[in-house]
From TrEMBL:
This is Outer membrane receptor proteins, mostly Fe transport. The keyword Cytoplasm does not apply. It is found in: Cell outer membrane. Its main location: membrane.
């Protein structure tokens, strides 16, 4: 498959060599012979429309344009508009334009209509939220915090910095929600390069698709997708930041870009370092100690003592951008590593004091894109290879309690019978190798109709070794292989004067996985080791549509529907020893029918007041939903299971208000009702949910309120201060199914989290200082199975713009 992608690139480059394309360039000047800085130049004909702004000298350039007749429309707030007809029939076409200056009173007659990337995405009919980071990138906040403030989104972390996070979109969670960086699945980048490792200052915007996902993202996202779009600046810049805060938290990052404007040679690089002790206090019905044998448990308030997290990473790209022959051709490399102490098992009832994991990732990639590689055809290819080395260390049998030291009576430490804290002693090393490729072709029949083809290939292999195992077990060679192929085809149409936008798509899903895993049979005293072999294949077809209709430029309705399929991920099937996740080799694909309908009314203005509202209603009809559940009497491990037939319906609502570009208020509410049609049982034979009861461990009602105040020149001239506050409400929800769990352990209580802070940018816009207080009320906050998150914390951040 990789060879096919490389052949496509080769053919496209050769076809392009014979294409009849040229360049249009020139200068826009005012009639007083001064350059028309910032003038908007629009180039269009029946098949192409491109926009560009004039530079400092009034220069502009359109590169690699097919031969033909075009119209140039030029707009400026300081001059009368102008239209020119030109015919391109040579490699380079030069044209100079002169605009007639106008008086101030004529300015109101000049209207320039252009659409932001945010508006273009929202017009496609998908239920999508957009987070633009321009005004919040300098705050001492993490990417997951920004997501958690969005309607219909719930970020569920199992602890402090470095803990695993699940993303819940309108009732769908886990791997049903796919995460992308610039359209590339994040699994390629390794665990240490997570969303929280990417500082908001590196992000241009975050696209959150709820339910139906556009075909160009290619992957098998069934419950939605989060696409992180990084900054693609072509200007030379270098920026660094460092932050420190409570619980021994330190974070630093640096990023920069260099581009040669003459030949397009481009270098981009970024790096980060994260560290946290995560020694915050925990308390509640799972934080108990036994002071002496046979005595009742005593509930205490304790500090986490074995949860240190460290990660580092660098990412670099080198190549060419915005040239005649390619929009981009970049060769990239990513190196990252992480080591983490492991404090608890699946819940806080079991405490570890010597178990930890280490891992490092290497990834290499090539990224190519070219618009109009031949007339009206855009092409892009991304290919990457990554290797993750992970080691789990658990060799000491000493038992620990929440007092922070080994449990002992009469100076004799207690030990676990199996020889280690989480079972048998282990020094297991996993080597995961992943090959990923994504190809995209987009053909525009005309400005109103285009056809797009996408292909994603993902292969995975794991080689595991554990020197702590007996030689007879190590002699039985294990094998884990996984491959998935996804093909998608979509067609987009604009009708009724571009008011109605319709997208229809189809996806073909193919999976082939093989495993040979050691298993034990019989009782522990007389058990035998044997290899269990599995080979599972699946072929599925999905399809859907998305529509939007602009009743007015500011008011639109949208809807989408699809039959979606989600293939089990390699990590769900093969497990992860470091994360206490057992293998589940017989997992079936998830299948769901998703429906969305909503309205959007934005930029409604009354004098200095601006309002916006978006509402989305949804239905999910899902079979074989994959859920990660704790297993065993002590709930020490996780295992993924298919849960019968889940029906979900709900809505999310978002209101935005701003006053005079100074005061900004947003409020959102999300509610859904997810219930199981049938009784579903976990691997131990216990019912997960009685018939038609709520899905366990799933918050279903949340509200979020955010206020921000921006003011320039308040303390110093040319300075800016931003003050902000965010309030999150999560209604109580069941930890287990209604009929499971002991008294006081079945419900995760209602949670209220208040964060506040400010950011101050000094004159010249080179230094920004920010300070945040998270969980101001010091409330007890939970997400996954009563795993408590940090209490009140104080964090400061310094950002310095070097270039």
């Amino acid at each position: 498959m990789v060879k096919k992608h490389l052949i496509i690139v080769f053919l496209c480059l050769n076809i392009y060599a014979f294409a009849q394309n040229g360049n249009i360039s020139g200068y826009v000047m005012f009639d007083n012979n001064k350059p028309a800085l910032g003038a908007l130049i629009v180039l269009e004909n029946t098949t192409i429309k491109k926009e560009i702004s004039a530079g400092v000298s009034g220069a502009f350039s359109f590169k690699n344009i097919p031969f033909g007749e075009y119209t140039l429309n030029i707009y400026s707030l300081s001059a009368k508009g102008k239209t020119e007809k030109i015919y391109l029939n040579s490699k380079n076409k030069a044209i100079n334009l002169v605009l007639e200056l106008t008086h101030y009173q004529d300015l109101e007659q000049v209207t320039v209509n252009t659409k932001t990337a945010k508006k273009k995405i929202k017009e496609k009919g998908f239920a999508v939220s957009i987070i633009e980071t321009k005004n919040i990138a300098l705050q001492s906040v993490e990417t997951n915090q920004l997501l958690d403030r969005t309607a219909g989104v719930r970020v569920r972390q199992s602890g402090g910095l470095g803990s695993h996070a699940h993303y819940n979109l309108n009732g769908m969670s886990g791997n049903s929600v796919k995460i992308f960086i610039d359209g590339i699945p994040i699994r390629n980048f390794g665990p240490s390069f997570s969303l929280n490792s990417i500082p908001p200052s590196l992000i241009n915007r975050i696209e959150i698709y709820k339910g139906v996902v556009p075909a160009h993202l290619s992957d098998d996202a069934m419950g939605g997708a989060i696409n992180i779009v990084l900054n693609k600046t072509t200007s030379n810049q270098l920026r660094a930041s460092t932050s420190a805060g409570s619980f021994g938290t330190y974070k630093s990052d640096i990023n920069g870009t260099y581009r040669n404007d003459k030949n397009g040679f481009t270098v981009r690089g970024s790096g980060f370092i994260n560290y946290a002790d995560n020694d915050y206090s925990v308390w509640g019905d799972q934080v108990a100690v036994q002071l002496s044998p046979g005595t009742p448990d005593v509930y205490i308030k304790a500090k986490r003592f074995h949860d240190r997290y460290r990660s580092q990473g660098i990412k670099a790209e080198i190549g060419y951008t915005n040239t005649d022959w390619a929009d981009k051709l970049l060769f990239g490399a990513l190196l990252s590593n992480m080591d983490k102490q492991i404090q608890t098992a699946a819940t806080m009832e079991i405490v570890y004091g010597n178990r930890f994991s280490k891992q490092n990732t290497k990834m290499y990639n090539i990224d190519f894109a070219k618009s109009n590689i031949i007339k009206n055809l855009d092409a892009s290819v991304f290919v990457s290879f990554s290797e993750l080395n992970r080691k789990t260390i658990d060799t000491i049998a000493t038992q620990y309690s929440w007092l922070g030291h080994p449990t002992s009576y009469y100076n004799d430490p207690d030990v676990w019978a199996d020889g280690a804290e989480a079972g048998r002693p282990t020094l297991q090393r996993d080597i995961d190798q992943t090959l990923n490729s994504r190809g995209n072709l987009k053909y525009a029949f005309n400005p109103k109709n285009n056809l797009q083809f996408n292909h994603l290939l993902n292969t995975f292999t794991r080689d595991s070794k554990d020197p702590k195992l007996p030689a007879i077990e190590n002699a039985l060679k294990e094998e884990r292989k996984y491959m998935k192929n996804i093909f998608s085809l979509s067609f987009e149409n604009l009708a009724f004067n571009k008011k109605l936008r319709t997208t229809v798509f189809a996806k073909s899903y193919h999976m082939d996985r093989t495993s040979k895993i050691r298993t034990r049979t019989g009782n522990s005293s007389n058990s035998e080791i044997e290899i269990e072999e599995n080979n599972i294949k699946s072929d599925d077809l999905g399809y859907g549509t998305a529509l939007s209709y602009a009743i007015t430029p500011k008011f639109s309705v949208f809807g989408s529907a699809e039959k979606a399929v989600r293939l089990p991920e390699a990590g769900e099937v093969f497990g992860n020893v470091a994360a206490n996740v057992n293998a589940s080799v017989n997992l079936s694909p998830e299948r769901s029918k998703n429906y969305n309908i909503g309205i959007s009314y934005n930029n409604f203005e009354i004098k200095n007041h601006t309002f916006g509202v978006t509402s989305n209603f949804f239905i999910r009809d899902t079979e074989d939903l994959i859920i990660q559940l704790p297993i065993g009497n002590d709930e020490e491990f996780f295992q993924n299971s298919n849960v019968g037939k889940i029906y979900t319906e709900g809505f999310d609502f978002e209101l935005n208000y701003s006053y005079d570009k100074t005061l900004f208020v947003s409020a959102n509410t999300s509610f859904f009702n997810a219930r199981d049609y049938n009784v579903t049982y976990d691997v131990d034979g216990n019912p997960i949910t009685p018939s038609y009861q709520r899905l366990p461990n799933t918050p279903y009602f949340t509200m979020n309120y955010n206020v921000r105040f921006d003011k320039e020149n308040l303390i110093q001239k040319k300075s800016k201060i931003s003050c902000y506050s965010n309030l999150l409400y999560v209604h109580e929800f069941f930890r287990h199914g209604n009929i499971l769990g002991g008294a006081g352990k079945t419900i995760i209580p209602t949670q209220i989290a208040l964060d506040t802070g400010f950011a101050y940018t000094f004159p010249k816009n080179t230094i920004t200082l920010s300070f945040d207080v998270r969980n101001v009320l010091n409330r007890q906050l939970f997400d996954n199975y009563a795993l408590q998150k940090p209490g009140r914390g104080f964090y400061g951040k310094l950002t310095y713009k070097i270039l």
